Structures are given as structure tokens and as C-alpha cells.
Fold:
Amino acid sequence: MTTEPKIWNTLERDYRERIEAARPYVMDGKVVEAGDAVKLLEAVIRPGDKVNIEGDNQKQADFLAQCLCEVDTEKVHDLHMVQSVLSIPAHLDVFDKGIAKKVDFSFSGPQAGRLAEYVRDGKIELGAIHTYLELYGRYFVDLTPRVALCVGVSADRNGNIYTGFNTEDTAVIAEAVKFHQGIVIVQVNELVDEVPRVDIPGDWVDFVIQAPRPFYIEPLFTRDPALITDSQILRAMMVIKGIYGEYGIQRLNHGIGFDTAAIELLLPTYGEELGLKGKICSYFVTNPHPTLIPAIESGWVKTMYCFGGEAGMADYVQARPDVFFIGPDGTMRSNRDYAQTAGHYALDMFIGGTLQIDKYGNSSTATASRIAGFGGAPNMGCDAKGRRHATPGWMKCGEEYGMHDELVGDLPRGKRLVVQLQETFREKMAPGFVDKLDAVALAENAGLDLPPVMIYSDDLTHIVTEEGIAYLHKCTSMADRMAAIRAVAGFTEVGMAEDPAETAALRERGIFKTPADLGIDVRRANRDLLAAKSVKDLVNWSGGLYNPPAKFRNW
Amino acid sequence: MSDWKELEAKSFYGASARERARGIVDEGTFTELAGPADRMSSPHLPVLGEAVEWDDGCVTGVGLIGKHPVFVISQEGRFIGGAVGEVHGAKMVGAFVLARQMYDRIKEEHPDELAERLPAVVISFETGGVRLHEANAGLLAHAEVMDQIQETKGKFPVISLIGSKVGCFGGMGFVAAATDVIVMSDLGRLGLTGPEVIEQEMGKDEFDSADRSLVYRTTGGKHKYIMRDANYLVEDTLGDFHDQLAAIMEAPYDEIVQCRRIGSEALVDEQLALAELSVEMAPKDARDVWAYFGNEDVEQIPEMTTAEFLAVAQRR
Structure:
């Protein structure tokens, strides 16, 4: 029997061909001139390739994204984009121009409306909406990019990359691509003789390009204390006393938003007054929020691991090496995947805001005309079923779990707290509680297999609104749960269906607590309680180390 | 700490209109007139399905500084950005009318003590100008307030306080410019066309309204103090604004009105010369102007505390 000998290195052969095609544009070592970037992309990308443009909710490989929009569609077309965010206009322009046709992603933020429109018009074939961990997991299974367009701060001529404190996803992308014979191109702000620290080794990188302008970075996690409202302060007081204090929450994540910023700024004042210092909030996995500076300076925070950096916080972070994770070079390195893993397994609580919560307790940030995606929230906003270590808060929540005996019998098991902060009415009087999530209509409009739900009801343990706290995990049935949601839903249609007798019974059982039940004087819920009332106050707390970006400088 | 001391220590920037009204006159002297209990609210907003406030976003009343009756107008930025509608404007006018009546009465009853009992109108601005929901009435209100300011000339001072969150923009920027004295904090902002509107009309390259540092360099208290659009720059507390008002009211009327920016041929010439200068030097940034007027280390000016700034500032 004669058969052709099986070829086992087609990927490697293909890789060599592509590198050969790129040779005319390589100057010195691995350096390609910015002016040749479009030609380089045309040389190394083939029709139908899976391509990643690096970007997250902060830093963007914006120059390379722009270059990809300028390639000749005769040479490059039908790409399958596999990337964490669709955030800048170029990310969707590639579909508009017919360069790409399919996408698998995590988060779309500002492009959510346009994405929904393109999906409806058939310009984009939507694979799936993932969490970050889920998408990067698939990089090592069935969604490995053939070409990655990455971003760093500086590079040397051999392709060693320094990412600064915004390392974020660069390492995982480069590793997945390079170890499957793919091509890694990195745009950097500057070429140097020697990088301060090697974040991505040069042999994982094929080409480096000095971009004509520094990469775009969004100060996404900065909240101006001057804009925090009394209602947010009231909810923050309830959270600190009725949840953090009640469960002794030591390990937690804070997401983006004014609600959690209010909590951070109340720790050194209201938290101190309640005697909770050292008993709560010692370990954070979060971005370096400027509003955490007063709590850090007051000695509340032992350690803080970060998903990414935050514009203006580099000097402050560097000057607090006991708190942050600082390398031998003296600067912080962040890693979104490690932070997400910690968020899933090592934290006792997730807290965040949402757009809509339905009458069962499912919540979503999708609306009928916007495909917003998830980012990382679902990985942290769920009970980690694989967790096997005990902490007091986790154990207490498990002991209180009303469905425990039904599901587990008499063995002890803990439960992570998943808390949603919600205003009963949001901007433009949009109700925070609804009969049916807009996500359901979106799934129908966009032909999705699954309505994009951020946090499912069975993971949600607490809802906090200006009405009080619903301790949902204590409920023993869905009927109980729905009554508890009605109790916190205020004057929304869901809340108007409340039965006062039923709510009174829930208060008896400690499933619903009003501010008065928690011993909180509502009159004290005002801005005088904030440890910092302005961005300038934050700068002063930091001893001048925090250097806020221009858009936050009220002076 | 007593309630009064707490109020005086409060940030002017973050204070509500009512707190400002109480805190800028002497302790316990403020009486609100046409307050929320009188329920004077906009007749136009309900027609548009918008919520009303029972004071229409404008607190008016009278208090004392020393023996001076001070008629206070205080705008609330948390209600439609402090925008001026029909009732809001009518309340402003009402305060002027009462101040004039008070002036006439003091002149008649205490002719010897007119100087030490001289009334004043104080406006704590927090507004973007006309309320677009009732634009005609709002514009008319602006004209009426301007008219009222003219009626006070030669009689008693009108003093502007600017240091609240929304700043003082739009038509009310003109109104502030027409008053006798302007007191600001470094957090205060004063201008005509607001930053967002400039960006919308002229593009982001001309003016990036999200660049708050740029916004403050162009409209903020320190810049306005250097340009002498603001006469006094004070720290951001109700007490500091109160003390500055008291100091102004100590001075004789003729001296107070030296602070004016417009109102005489000489002042108009001065403003025109400034306009010419701006064409000539074509500044790229407020920092160029600061340097032109003799300020050193202009990069550091935004970073300075008010006290540090006042110690070194070179003014036009």
C-alpha cells in the first residue's frame, strides 16, 4: 500500500511562507516602519484567517486596527475576528469595508448599537458573546488566532516588549498565537535599546512597529467624587453595614461605577466609625481605582491585584509596593486572566451595578437595540462551584442558603455573595426592575441562541436599592424570592405589585431589611460623609502621587 | 462643632442653593421669600411632562451682613442645570424690586446712616442660562434682570458669587459681567458659550469639552482673576465667600463700583483693546496669556492652592 507521507507541520510551512512574504518590509531586527504597516498586514494575513486586534476596556492597538481597515480587500477578506472587545470605530469599520465577516467577542461598550445594526443587516455573522476567560479559553481550543495585532509601551529591535502596568491581555494572546505557529505583530509607543522589563519575550514576537502616536487608553475606572449622589451614599452605607460588616467580607472585587466609588470613599469615615477596619475589605482584586486611595492611605487595604492599570495611577501604585504587585523593575504588572481567575475562585464577594433586573432576579445590561456583551462580570458574579476553601463570609452565606438542604443535604458548603446595586429608576426614568429583560427581545432581534444574561438569578444573593436590602439567598422558594424582589423594587411596575403583608413577613425572617432595620439614619446619607469630595481631594490624599488625566482635572 | 460653623466650613462648590443662601449672610439672619411652601413652580414644564420644583430652582430671600440688608438670589444647579425659566427669572426680578424699595425706605428713614445700612443684591450663580423648555420666557427674564441691574446704578451694589458645580454660562454669563463685583473660587467657571456647545459648533480640535483641565484654564476662577473678569478669588467655603462679601460691603459705594468691567467709555475701550490684543498675539492656550501678563511657571498655576496662587499671580 502506497500513501503520501502525512505532513505534520502544515502550520509551520504556512507560517514560513507568510514571513517570507513580509521580508521586504523588515528593516532592522524585527522592526517595520509605520508607513509599511498596511503592506505588512496584506503580506501576512490570508482570506478567512482568524485575527485578533488587541484591546480591552482600556488600552487599544488602535494604530494596527486602523491599518487593517486600509488593506486591499482583494488580498484580505472574510476574516473571522476573535477579540475581547469591539470598542473603537475601526473594530466595526473592518466589517463595513468587507475585510471581516464574522466575530467572536466579549464586550462591545460604545459600539454596542452599531454592532446590533450590523448583525441585523447581515454585515456581521455573530459567533458568540463570551466572558473574557471563556474567550481566552477558546483561544487554546477552537478559536486560536492566526495573526494577532498587539500593543505595548516599548520594544527593542529583537521584539522584546514592555507593556508597562497595562499588561492586561497581551501575554495570553501572544502565547496562544505563537505556540500555534501564528504571527504576532506589536505596535509600541517607542523603540528602545533595552526595555525596562521583558513582558513578552522577543521570540514570541514577529514584528514591531513604532506607531505614529501613543496607543489610545481610556481612564475607564476613574469616578469623580464630586458627582456622587446622596442616594448612592445611602446605598453604600447599607452595603457596608448590612453586607460587608454582617458577613465580614475580606476578599472582594469592585467594578466600575459610582455606587462602588461611594463605598470606597465611605470606608475611612463610616466604616471606621462602625469599627470595621481590619475586619472587612483587606484584599481587593480590581483595577487601581483612584477612589480607593483614601482607604489605602488609611491602612484598610492589605493587597490589591489588578486586571489592568488606570491612567494617572502609575506613580501612586509604584510607591505602594506592599499593596500592589510590583516587579523587580519597580513597576506594576497586571494580568486580566489571573485577576479573573482570582475573581472566580479566591474572592468572597462580587458587587456591581446593572441596567435591568427581572422579577425572578436575572439581570442584564443589554437593551433591545444594543449588543453590549459581558466583559468579566459573569465570571465573578457567580458562585464558583469548584471552590473548595473556606472563609467566614463564604461559610455564613452558605449556612443561610435557603435551598441548601434541598440541593446538598446536610453537608456544609459555602456560597459566594453576589450583590447587585440598583436604583429603582435609572436615568430618564428607566425602571431598574422589569417584568421581562430587554435581553430577550435582543436575542430575538439579533438571532442569538441565548439571551445575554449578565447574572442569573440562582447566583444572585443580594439586591440593594434605596428601599433596602433583599437577602435573596435566604429564600426557600422562587415565590419567596419574587416577593423579596418586589419589596426592594420601589415604584416600578414590579414593585407596585408588592403585598405589604408579605413584605412584613419577609422583614420578620430577615430576608428584607430597610435602612431603619439596619440602624441607619437616612439623614446622614449625604456628601459630608465622603472621605474625598473631589478629584483634587484624591490627589491630596495621595500626597501628589496621583496624576489625574486632563478630563478629570477640575483646575 | 455648631451647625453654623459646620455650614460656614462647607464647600461652596458642593453646597445646595439654600445652604449657600443661608451661609453667605450673617448667622441666622436669612429669611426665604417666595420659598417652596409658596409653590411657585413653572407652568410650562408640566405641559412637557417634566418634573417641577416648588422653588423653580431659585432660592430668594433677605439676610443681613452687619447692618446691610442683603437680598439673595441663589440658583440650584441640580434642577435642570440651574437654567432660568419664567418663574425663576421673576423671582430674581422680585429680589431686585424689594432691594430698591428697601433702599428708598432707608434713604427716607435713616438718611444719616445710608452708607452703613446700604442694601445689596447678591447673586449666587449656578446656571447655563436660558431654560430651553421655556426659552422665550427665559430670554425675557434675562432682559428683565439686566434692566434691573441698570436700575441699581448709583444706588447700591450688585455682587456675583461664582463657585458652584455648573458654573455661570450662557446669558447669565452676560448678567454676571454686568454686575458691580464678581467673587469666584478656583472651582468657579464663568463664560458665555459653554464648553460643550463650543465643541459641538467648532469641533473637538478647536475645544475638547471633555478636557476638564482645558475647560478650567479657559473659564476657571484663576484665569478669570488674572484677566480681572473676577475681582476677588477666595477659598471654596461658604465662610470665605461670606467674609469676602462682608469686606466688600465695608467699602463705600463709590469704591465698590471701581470693580466694574463695563459701564463707561473708558471701560469699553479697555475691553476693545483686549479683543485687539487677542487677535494680535493669537494665544494657543490660556497659559500663553498668563505668561504675557508676567506670570512665571505657568504650567504650575493650575496646581497651586488658592493662597499660593494669590501670592504670585500677576494680573492684567
